Amino acid sequence: MWLYQLKKLVQEMDDQDVRQGLLAFLYTVKEYKEEGKHSDSFMTEIVQLYKELTITPEETAKRRLVPNQNTDTVHIVFGESTAGSVRQVIKQLGLQESDGIICFPDLFSVGPIWKLHEPEGRLYRKEWIRNHLDPEYTDDNYAFTGELNPIEMVQQIPEQAQIVIWGGNSAHERIGSRYVQYLLREYRNQMIEINAVDICERKYNIADDQKYFHTGEIAIDKLIEVFLEIKRIPPLTNVERDNYEQEWMIYAGTKQVLRLWMDGEINTVEQNHLDEYLLHTVYKLQSRSNPEAFLKAARIIGEAIGYFDEYIGDSFFEYRLRSLIYEGKLEICGIPKAMRYYSVRIKL
Length: 348
What we know:
four-stranded parallel sheet, three-stranded antiparallel sheet
């Protein structure tokens, strides 16, 4: 539990906080090594540094901008990278007292979303991810830190708060948006959906080869300008909200595990949809070097992600890479325990 808490703490710290914490640690080690400090003194300073970095649940909630009954605007985001960016914008604009964030960390483009709005569907998704992508996956981590999970946080949004749902041109954020709008179907709060990608591209005339696909990719300075557009966006009408709820029910009725953004809309595809793309990536990399050489799985997956227009995560690409091995289309050298442990090549 404590290891998870420390890992979560580091992941959620601002870059500047991480650098300062690391610098303080290294400086303490340097003094111990070069100036011959006594070990007891060294440990005292390390423990003090630990105490400064690990804070109470109340302080954690404040740092994470967890909404409370006095929150005026609740921002709902999808993915930790987006949450970090929006959190930083709120702090830079000095809105910590009025604005809060609810983050749904799951990648909604991958994995089943069948009946995800019900306990049965959430269990189904968890078991599929454990069996195919990550055997240690859990959606119960919040219990370790005393925090509410995102659904519980949504249930406690105060009546007076404006709700801002952050989206972009990706299956991940669009599915997440429809899911949340279904969860909020009984709420009478004013609700806004903001497509940060569209706004950013319109304001800055982004070239086609530099387009963003989700909010987390947008630089902080540009995201601040997007943030300032919120007050100009009209709230969703009842008709729009009803349509979005119905969209969600269509998605939640399928058991496919891969969704992609194609031609401005979500396409639900079979899980082997990207297999040919992966095989082409292996072939391309082998052609650049020795056609008979084995290639590290991590290198192949990194290449596949780098040239793919939408982020679906390394876990899904590795799942399909392993599937191609089991189907006899790729040869393996090593043990497919994790991508760093094995290499593959086109079957000779």
